[in-house]
Amino acid sequence: MMIKKNGSIRLITLLLIVTVSFQKKEIKKRDSFATVKIVFNNTVKNSRIYLYDSTYTNPFGEKYTITKFRYYVSDIFLKSTIKNAAEKNSYHLIDQGNVESQSFSFPVAPGDYTSLNFLLGVDSLHNVSGAQTGALDPTKDMFWTWNSGYVMAKLEGNSPSSTLVNNKFEFHIGGYAGEYNVLKNIQLSFPEDKPIYFASNKTITIIINADVNAWWHNPNEIKIAEHANITSPGKLALAISDNYKNMFHIEKIITGN
Amino acid sequence: MKTRISIWIVFMVAFSAFLLSAVTKEVYNYSSTTPLKLEVPKGWPKPLNIFAGNPLTEEGFQLGRKLFYDGRLSKDGNFSCASCHQQFAAFATYDHDFSHGFNDQFTTRNAPGLFNLAWTRLYHWDGGINHIEVQPLSPLTAPNEMAENVDSVLQRLRADAEYRRMFREAFGKGDINSQKMLKALAQFTGTLVSANSKYDKVKRGEDQFNPSELHGYEVFKEKCEHCHKEPLFTDNSFRNNGLPLNTYLKDYGRMRITGNPEDSLKFRVPSLRNVSVTQPYMHDGRFYSLGQVIEHYRTGIQQGPTLDSSLRKGIQFTKLEKYDLILFLGTLKDTSFLNDKRFSHP
Lengths: 257, 346
Known about the structure:
The complex is a heterodimer. Chain A is mainly beta. In chain A, 14% of the residues lie in helices and 39% in strands. Chain A is built from two helices and 17 strands. By secondary structure, chain B is mainly α. Chain B has a two-stranded antiparallel ribbon. In chain B, helix 2 (58-68) packs antiparallel against helix 6 (161-171) and helix 2 packs across helix 7 (178-189). Chain A binds chain B through residues 1, 3, 5, 7-8, 11-12, 15-16, 18-19, 22-23, 127-133, 137-141, 143, 145-149, 180, 232-235, and chain B through 1-2, 5-6, 8-9, 12-13, 15-16, 19-20, 23-24, 52-54, 105, 124, 128-134, 137-138, 140-141, 143, 146-147, 150-151, 154, 177-179, 182-183, 186, 256-257, 259.
């Protein structure tokens, strides 16, 4: 150790200064931050979703209506060649039945960014850490009570092709560990792979389209007539998650104000 | 000199970390709570860290206890946790194969005793519950109406001045939410420790087995110990102990959770502590006496691909071994736990 006798006093002072200046910097930085606003626009092949009210057709010609459509988006960050910008405490439940849930904002340092990244689902740690709050509150109807863990994405509706009672179909897709882990890292590159500059004090809006019709195919064919009820972790849930990871694309980025 | 300086450095780093965390994080007002400690009996393995993020306090425990005994947690006000988990039966349902409840899902299995849960890695007969805090969601909700159910329970709690006071004392200011309710319940159920049976007293040198009990203990160590492992009397593994499938319930146990055919008909090895008061036995409560249980191991083992290899030939018993074994199992009854006022109806 190279510290002299009165080094400890100097150390105290130093650490205090570091502590205080750290906070100051944090406050100062925020003023000049850019704001990114993320909007999830859920559709079926570009048609707007009206819960209960509209009939859609999947790639196999099966007609269906949607009564519930929800998914978790977490660990959001913007990729940059210099320093990625992550949202803090980043957990969102996007719910087609709740407009407010479909957009949110957070501050990022000004700079060039090249893609938007997130985890589709809830990281495994938060599946095994007991009772959570906020978007992860287990009473939000997205937590299995008989087989602990989050439903990462949920799609429910009716279809004449379904053999279930009332022609229902229900997909509750989850599983956070092992071979049936359905967590998906999503990377959405900005149009033409070009970096976009996020200027300080500006709001940049990224509109993401999610197409429900991605759930049924590519790479795995899921016909309602054959599988109307997938509500526990396993092979079929994994197959659907390999489909729905392709449901997103960036519709538009508005760099306006 | 060197050591003094390094002590200072350690202190300062800790101090500044504390400063940082105090200013950057929301600090709960726990200052007025009375800390509690989980009692860890001598010679037991280390408990799991089930209270991580849920510091045990007297206030949290008392709130959990009140919730546990409160019928208002159920839809129609009739079914408290304690209606299925009765203290005199070591918090199992006494003398019922299936507990009565409003919820079909929960009449399909036998309610186990509740104790030493801080040494249990996965809860329920099939291990489907991965944390003690989320366990109550299961009895509190039916599969498809969960949000409504817990929300209305929370509304009832918020409307009650006594609960508002107790939640504030336990968790500080702020709304009553599901997390606080679940953490409080975990503080109660997680601290139910049973470790004062005659068996424990003998182990501590405070008592002695009589010759029959001692013989029964020898039999136990030879025939049962490798699954019902001391001192918890379970090794917390999932095994098929040769019970034929209940054709009415079609309960395949662990396989329901893992989807793996190798887990078919495997259930969590239950603790045998307090076993003389937790009848009926097994996941579906099919046996009403310990005599029947032993007869199962002697003559009733059903062969099958997932049957535990140690049970392929069944377990041989003389009449004397059988009766002395039952006497030994009686020494696992913990009367002071069954009568502990701290755990009784508040």
